[in-house]
Amino acid sequence: MEIFVVPxxxxxxxxAAGILAAVIRSKPDAVLGLATGGSPLPIYKALAGxxxxxxxxxxxxxxxxxxxxxxxxxxxxxxxxREVTERLQLDPAKVxxxxxxxxxxxxxxxxxxAAIAAAxxxxxxxxxxxxxxxxxxxxxxxxxxxxxxxxxxTERTRAANARYFSTPEEVPLRCITQGLGTIMEAxxxxxxxxxxxxADILAAALNGPVTADCPASILQWHPHxxxxxxxxxxxxLAPASGQVPVRVAGAAATV
Length: 255
Ligand code: F6R
Hints:
CATH topology: Rossmann fold
Number of strands: 11
Largest sheet: 8 strands, parallel
Structural class: alpha/beta
Shape: globular
Number of helices: 8
Strand content: 15-25%
CATH architecture: 3-Layer(aba) Sandwich
Bound molecules: fructose -6-phosphate
């Protein structure tokens, strides 16, 4: 595991985008795993500034709400379209999001898992972390070998995501999420974290025991993980063997 600590949230985007641009240059048809939420937005903004041809890149979103009407602005299909596909000029036909309005969401989830495998798997999976340690929407208690499936969102996650909706009640109760086992099959996991409110959970995930109580702790078992965190989020990380944070000075730093 490599950990880069940078001064600001914007710098997390610069560093992570530098990593992704290098991957796409060496593999123009790379398959990216696309996280939504606030943490990865600086990545997509920074990546748009790289002169790299992304026309052959494909993407799979990490998750989607179940039950929002098609075209709802806060559905992850719409967020991915706005923030990723259009910004990076990806081919919309190459970008997939779980079908949260499917008549049979469980089947849609299984089909999505199969589609990732059929695409040859994900080369780089972008990830954020929830305040409760969730990875994608794998809430605490999720099986470490879980596959893409329907999950019930915890009240903590619904409260955190209420900022995107007019009222907290509008936040859906369920989602389709890639499973922890699905995520672990990606070749490279790229976790971006910012803000003091994530410091406790980031330290628990990286320095604590691997446990379903903190789903993101499974990162410790993956052979290729890059963490890019701002100073505030990294404040409680213990320098442990093999996990010594590299402090990158300056917002324009790339690796
Ligand atoms: C989003 C996702 C979630 C978020 C996490 C952090 O696709 O799967 O796991 O990454 O909830 O969200 P932010 O970045 O908004 O704090």
